[in-house]
Amino acid sequence: MLDRDQFQAAYARALPYADYVATGTPPQQESWEAFRRDHPIGQAQIELVGRFSRRIHALAISSAWCGDCVQQLPFLAQFEAANPERFRPRFLDRDENAGLAEHFMICEGLRVPVVLFLNEDFDFIALFGDRSLTRYRAMAAARLGSLCPLPGAAVAAEEAEATRQDWLNELERVHLLCRLSPKLRARHGD
Q1: Of the candidates 178, 190, 151, 186, the residue with the CA atom closest to the CA atom of residue 58
Q2: Are residues 70 and 39 in contact, defined by beta-carbon separation less than 8 angstroms?
Q3: CATH number for the domain harbouring residue 167
Q4: From the CB of residue 72, how many other CB atoms can be counted at a distance below 10 Å?
């Protein structure tokens, strides 16, 4: 496992959402933005994230070409927009950061997306990825096996909403871990 200095260094070189998306080809950029635009966040979700009181850093290991990344990671940007003081996702290309990605392989594979949740001190809290439960259920129902969807592939609105909720549930769980942390409670006097 990496230590907090290594996490902080990786986070410092990572990019905000818009800058990361801009590293893709024009068709890739359009896929990312179209998904984000076509699947807006709901008011209840905005209000939930808006109530977060602890800072959470998220480090997303991603690839601009990856359909699963396109169909999940724009949600992180939506959560950030709901509370930019408390939730700060940053994005790294997996292939350009293979040394980091190798520490977080899933089933011995360099999967994407993989999101590392870190507290305000850059202590590791949780890993979430490569697909949420809703995404895996949809894949199983369609019998896609190991195939990865192409960027821009259609996603049913219900699946996108349920997938966003999967990600939000994990983010809320991470926030509650931070909120109930004895170290952070002592620091913040609550």
Answers
A1: 178
A2: no
A3: 3.40.30.10
A4: 29
- Contacts of residue 21, defined as CB under 8 A and 6 or more positions apart, other chains included, come to 28, 29, 32, 33, 64
CA 104 to CA 113: how far, in whole Å?
A: 11
Residue with tokens 């940053």: 90
Asked whether 113 and 66 are in contact (CB, 8 A), the reply is yes
pLDDT by 10s per residue, the chain, length 190: 899 999 999 999 999 999 999 999 999 999 999 999 999 999 999 999 999 999 999 999 999 999 999 999 999 999 999 999 999 999 999 999 999 999 999 988 899 999 999 999 999 999 999 999 998 888 787 765 555 566 677 888 999 999 999 999 999 999 999 999 999 999 999 9
- What are 106's two structure tokens? 């899933």
Three-state SS sequence of 1-29? CCCHHHHHHHHHHCECHHHHHCCCCHHHH
| Total domain count, the chain | 1
N residues, the chain: 190
Q: Residue holding tokens 């996603």?
A: 155
Say how many Å lie between the first and final Cα of the chain, rounded: 30
Whether the model pTM is above 0.90: yes
- Enclosing domain of residue 68: 4-188
